């Protein structure tokens, strides 16, 4: 079963920025792109499990704060070493001014 | 400044499975490190990338390198060549290290290919395999001065001071770098390299080493054919005779400070320097700041320093002052390897993370 879960209000994330969203034991990174769209990926870098929300968003790239590995957050693809493995991505929508993420139970 | 001794067994710096396990068991490997609180908006502004400062500095660097190299060629055979050799040597054999470093982090330029191009060029100058050293530096940031984990500890305890002094003319560094490159050429990665270079990257390390070694071999052939040292003075040689500034600044990064801690304020040193050294070193003198926030480009480190200095030990006011602190610490470590310099925090700082652990 899949559920849409409230993350935050749309204006809680600046454009070209990211926030951390923890749900149960899982952590996610929620992005606001320069075009005003929202995206969600796993919250921890695939290289050494560091929270990506402390990193830097540049266009569609998130750069990890620990070793500057990069991912395309719209696809999850690792684009710069030392990040090699891709991130999981999750559907996101905006409903009633809320950013929501869809997670399968 | 206070001085501290602890009573722990001799250090084993090998990057072995046993030492890695010990570091993990003690919570030192891949640990959570102390960070000074910085407002997210402010940090975003500091992390922001731009090409301008790095293009400016790289053009100055390359122009000076070419001009001094041309001076060496034109004046070869006369004593007037000496100042040109000295300048060329430092621009080649010392400035390369900071360019390698900043572009390896990918923070110097905003444009990725510019970082990559300068990284490859500087890796050649500094005689580092661009693949293995990318991974060793990632480990250095994960486990900074953690014994048995960090592959880039410049001065191990007890310090081998003869080695330190000889490295000012690259004696050991060049030997170890060449040995590693030649082994890589033959498809061999050493045990410590295998401990941090993932398998899919190992073939790339071999290919990169082959490119470097072909250039060095061509330089040696040119020297023999021309019957002149000039080719080696221009290529390869500066890594030895021109690396003194890299050593002088690099030793200050962690020398004489704590190991096996998870607070960069205890194991790293920020030193205020003259503008020429800061240009050569690309602001890596702000070393505590760099380790705490590796996303901040070199040109924003002075601003970061001003922002968080209330939470850091006072920076050493000069290179001289840094050495006045570090050399006595090295000398004491000859008798007691557990000795280290523990610098006072200002009253405005949060206390050190007191999770010093034995290894
Ligand atoms: S932890 Fe993200 S790149 Fe290393």
CATH class of chain A: Mainly Beta
Please list the strands of the largest sheet of chain B in the order they lie side by side: 1-2
Q: What integer is the average pLDDT of chain A?
A: 95
Order of secondary-structure elements of chain A: EEEEEEEEEEE
SSE topology string of chain B: EHHHHHHHHHHHHHHHHHHHE
The CATH superfamily of chain A bears the name Rieske [2Fe-2S] iron-sulphur domain
- Shape summary of chain B: globular
Q: Percent helix among the residues of chain B?
A: 55-70%
Q: Rg of chain A, please?
A: 13 Å
The number of E-state strands of chain B comes to 2
First-to-last CA distance of chain A:
6 Å
How many E-type strands of chain A? 11
What proportion of the residues of chain A is helical, as a percent range?
under 10%
* Fold-level CATH name of chain A: Rieske Iron-sulfur Protein
Unreliable stretches covering 5 or more consecutive residues of chain B: none
Quaternary structure of the protein: heterodimer
| Biggest sheet details of chain B | 2 strands, antiparallel
The rounded distance between the terminal residues' Cα atoms of chain B is 25 Å
- Class by SSE composition of chain A: mainly beta
**Total discrete domains of chain A:** 1
Number of helices of chain A: 0
Molecular structure report:
The complex is a heterodimer of chains A (about 100) and B (about 350). In chain A, about 0% of the residues lie in helices and about 50% in strands. By secondary structure, chain A is mainly β. In chain A, the strands form 3 sheets. Chain A has a 4-stranded antiparallel sheet with strand order 2-3-4-9, with no helix packed on it. In chain A, strands 5-6-7-8 form a 4-stranded antiparallel sheet, with no helix packed on it. A 3-stranded antiparallel sheet of chain A has the order 1-11-10, with no helix packed on it. In chain A, strand 2 and strand 3 form a beta hairpin. Chain B has one domain (about 1-359). The two termini of chain B are about 25 Å apart. Chain B has about 350 residues and is an all-alpha fold. The interface of A and B includes residues 58, 67 and 81 of A. FE2/S2 (inorganic) cluster (FES) binds near residues 50 and 64 of chain A.
């Amino acid at each position: 079963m899949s559920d849409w879960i409230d993350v935050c209000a749309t204006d809680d994330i600046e454009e070209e920025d990211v926030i951390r969203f923890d749900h149960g034991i899982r952590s996610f990174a929620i992005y606001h792109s320069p075009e005003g769209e929202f995206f969600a990926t796993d919250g921890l870098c695939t290289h050494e499990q560091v929270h990506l929300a402390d990193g830097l968003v540049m266009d569609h790239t998130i750069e990890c704060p620990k070793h500057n590995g990069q991912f395309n957050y719209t696809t999850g693809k690792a684009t710069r070493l030392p990040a090699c493995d891709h991130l999981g991505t999750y559907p996101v929508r905006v409903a009633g001014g809320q950013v929501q993420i869809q997670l399968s139970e | 400044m206070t001085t501290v001794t602890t009573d722990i067994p001799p250090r084993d710096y090998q990057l072995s499975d046993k030492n890695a396990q010990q570091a993990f068991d003690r919570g030192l490997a891949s640990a959570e490190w102390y960070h000074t609180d910085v407002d997210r908006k402010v940090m975003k502004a500091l992390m922001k990338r731009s090409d301008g400062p790095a293009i400016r500095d790289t053009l100055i660097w390359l122009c000076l390198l070419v001009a001094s190299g041309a001076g060496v060629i034109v004046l070869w055979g006369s004593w007037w060549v000496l100042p040109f050799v000295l300048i060329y040597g430092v621009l080649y054999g010392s400035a390369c290290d900071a360019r390698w470093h900043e572009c390896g982090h990918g923070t110097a330029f905003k444009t990725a290919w510019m970082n990559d191009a300068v990284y490859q060029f500087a890796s050649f100058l500094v005689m580092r395999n661009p693949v293995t050293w990318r991974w060793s530096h990632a480990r250095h940031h994960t486990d900074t001065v953690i014994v048995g984990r960090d592959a880039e500890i410049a001065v191990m305890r007890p310090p081998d001071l003869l080695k330190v002094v000889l490295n000012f003319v690259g004696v050991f560094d060049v030997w170890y770098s060449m040995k590693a490159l030649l082994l890589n050429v033959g498809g061999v990665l050493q045990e410590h390299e295998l401990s941090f270079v993932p398998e899919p990257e190992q073939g790339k390390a071999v290919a990169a080493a082959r490119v470097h070694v072909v250039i060095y071999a061509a330089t040696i052939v040119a020297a023999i054919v021309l019957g002149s040292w000039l080719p080696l003075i221009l290529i390869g040689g500066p890594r030895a005779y021109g690396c003194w500034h890299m050593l002088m600044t690099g030793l200050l990064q962690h020398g004489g400070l704590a190991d096996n801690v998870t607070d960069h304020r205890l194991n790293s040193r920020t030193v205020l320097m003259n503008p020429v050294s800061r240009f050569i070193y690309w602001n890596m003198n702000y070393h505590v700041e760099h380790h705490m926030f590796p996303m901040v480009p070199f040109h924003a480190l002075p601003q970061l320093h001003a922002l968080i200095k209330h939470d850091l030990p006072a920076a050493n006011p000069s290179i001289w002052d840094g050495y006045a602190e570090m050399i006595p610490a090295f000398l004491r470590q000859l008798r007691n390897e557990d000795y280290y310099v523990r610098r006072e925090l200002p009253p405005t700082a949060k206390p050190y993370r007191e999770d010093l652990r034995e290894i």
